[in-house]
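User: Teach me something about this protein's shape.
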Amino acid sequence: MKRDIHLKNIREKNINDKIISYVIIGTIIVAIIIISLLLYSQKLNNDVKDETMTLEQMTDMIGDTNENKEETESASTEIGKTVEESEEEAKQENVQNETIQKTSRNESVESSSVSTNTTQNTTSEEQQKTQEVKELSFQRPVEGEIVREFAQDNLVYSETLEEWVTHNGIDIKADKTTVVKAAEAGVVKSIKNDPRYGLTIVIEHDDVYQTVYSNLLTSEFVVEGETVEKGQAIGTVGNSAVFEIADEPHLHFEILKDSIAIDPSIYIK
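Assistant: First, the predicted structure itself:
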């Protein structure tokens, strides 16, 4: 009897456990279904929201449509022109192009004429300047033998320095106290004691040429800034040049053109 009761209790317990298990599983399944439905519903709402066109987007679309319509009407108007109108417009364009080309040719001719006149004026001024320069004719500042020539491209031997050196002028042999004369009319630019060539007078001629008289004994006949005439006495021959102290008394004479030393033998007469 007891054994039967015990077996009955076991069977009831097993049934209760199964019922509880089924309830739990059913609850889980229902929850999963509900969650899935909620997610699906939210997705549908998002899709509808994405596909829904805002009022602003509709307005923009309508505006674009109107613009396209206006462009189409404009194109239709252009296409609808008559043949006569098209020919008339072409003629007007040809006339305008011919006018522009004519104006361009006239401007080109005027520019060429101005350029030619400018070139001619410049050439004339240069020729005039050259003629004025050629009018200068330098005379010997002292009479005597040229004992040392101009030498820039080659060398001459210096007795004082005992070596071969360049020489930017010519040395004209003359006795001490021989009067030195201006080779051409000009203005006395400077009177100075040069550390190499001793007492030196520089005369400027027409802003182009300068004559240089060095190795002088005196310069008492002129002062700086004085205007001198061609052949006017300006000083006397000496022996004051340190670089040429071993030589006999002479005048060291230079001619500069645009501040560049040139060979005086070509210019003096």
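Now, about its shape. The radius of gyration is 57 Å. Residues 2-52 form one domain. If you'd like, I can walk through any region in more detail.
User: That's plenty for now, thanks!
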